[in-house]
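Researcher: Here's the sequence for the chain we discussed earlier.
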Amino acid sequence: MSTATNALDTQIANLTADVAAETTVEESAITLITGIPGMIAVAVAQATAAGATPAELAAVTALGTSITNSSSKLAAAVTANTPAAPPAANTPAAPPAA
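Model: Thanks. This is the structure I predict for it:
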């Protein structure tokens, strides 16, 4: 089970890096929201391979399904509630070269 735990830890680290690499709050939230169901699916598959039954994993599976179904609503809410970036400051044009 240590190998499965290490694999899940690696996936979590990769998802964390993906979120950190995004340039806006909106993109980071969407990356996180859409990444969680995949992590849950991997964890369920690993648990199943280790002998867990569907009944034992029903709550986790249902959570993954719920997050997947809600992800578009969550992404829309993040977008709607993220303030627009402020306009770029006007900088004076450089004088023409002589």
